[in-house]
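Quick start: load a record and inspect it. Here is TetR family transcriptional regulator:
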Amino acid sequence: MPQASVNKRIGRPRSEESKAAILDATWELLKTTTMRDLSIEAIARESGVGKTTIYRWWSNKAAVAMDAVLEKLSPEIQFPQGLSATETITQQMMALIKAFCGDYGRIVAQIIAEGQACPETLERYRDRFLYPRRTAAKAILQQGIERGEFDPSLDPELAIDILYGPIYFRLLVGHLPLDRQFAEELPQWALKVLETNEKL
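Running the structure step on this input writes:
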């Protein structure tokens, strides 16, 4: 059997290579342009993959951008393992704030903005990015309740909003920076509310 045929069989399928090229190209474009100026034509040109192929997997440019960001961002904001619930949430919040300081934050903010005029984009953002992370956070909070770290009457949905709401407020409004001081102080103060059952 020719070597080329063997390599083709054992290598990554062409569809996966094309998807990877599209996502990589989209990410590179997003670092130098805005969501408003991004286009499927530019993604096709940069990736070397035809527009028809792109539309086979994604309905619009925001959907491609969302998956491109997720591929790069997800490994950096995972919840760490083997720690207390308080330490786990603290480290993950700090990682998210650090990530949102740069290109990730700028692009996520633009995707959310795009979603205000395109319900499909906002739905995809919630389904692909927001809800899975809220589910993971709720599991950590439940562990904290079971271990006596958090108040047993805690409402997990409200707790997540208390913890992460300020991050998105600064990201979208930009009135104050997502800096190191914020990353260190927000988990400390927000978690105190959960631990001591203080009323806002």
